Amino acid sequence: VALVTFDKVSSILILLVEINGKPHVLLTTRSNMVSSHRGQVCFPGGQRDLSDSSSVHTALREAEEEIGLPPTSVRVLGCMATLPPAPYFLTVVVGVLIDPKFEPVLNRSEVDNFFYCPLELFLSQEHMTTNIVDWESEGTVTPLTIYTFHYFCPVTESTHKIWGLTSSIAIFASCVAHNKP
User: Fold this and answer.
1) 6 three-class SS
2) Per residue of the chain (181 residues), what is the pLDDT tens digit?
3) Total Cβ atoms within 10 A of residue 5
């Protein structure tokens, strides 16, 4: 058995929020001031700090830094880990917003915008396009399906492109939440 090591360990938070009786997720648009993935849609989260006691702590700390979410406003339901082809180890922390008065306060050096997206969108063929790319890792090329969703948010009156690892994680979370294979 080969031991896999990662140079980077990160955590994200899938924050579930009930809106009009349906589960939504909070997504952010990364600032143009960050070093990578500028302007892309993602879940709150980031790289683990040495002071973080756990992957859950990382996700909650990053959410507080990025959108002003107090850790006490989240009930953590559980965690899941992504598998390659991600070039780093990523823990996906799933939590429910338990503070109905929470309003995001954005750290503009990290986040430009936020929006709530219905979780069921990620089960919809109507809003999804796919693209197959060759993913190269350790000298092996593997076909990889990239899922892309375009979501018009009625609150922000803007269309958001959700793709890549973010969309794959959202699809998985939606399948679990809606008990779909």
Assistant:
1) coil
2) 554 555 688 999 999 999 999 999 999 988 877 666 667 899 999 999 999 999 999 999 999 999 999 999 999 999 987 655 566 788 999 999 999 999 999 999 889 999 999 999 999 889 899 999 998 877 888 898 999 999 998 888 889 999 998 999 999 999 988 888 7
3) 6
| Run of H or E including 22 | strand 22-30
Nearest to 25, CA basis, from 162, 151, 170, 153: 170
What span, in angstroms and rounded, lies between the C-alpha atoms of 143 and 135? 6
Separation between Cα atoms, residue 144 and residue 67, nearest integer Å: 31
Tokens 């924050």 belong to 15
Give the CA-trace dihedral at 177, 151, 32, 55, to 10 degrees: 0
**pTM for the model:** 0.88
Write the secondary structure of 57-124 as one string of H (helix), E (strand) and C (coil): HHHHHHHHHHHCCCHHHEEEEEEEECCCCCCCEEEEEEEEECCCCCCCCCCCCCEEEEEEEEHHHHHC
* Residues 6 or more apart whose Cβ sits within 8 Å of residue 101: none
**Number of alpha carbons in the 13 Å side-chain half-sphere of residue 5:** 1
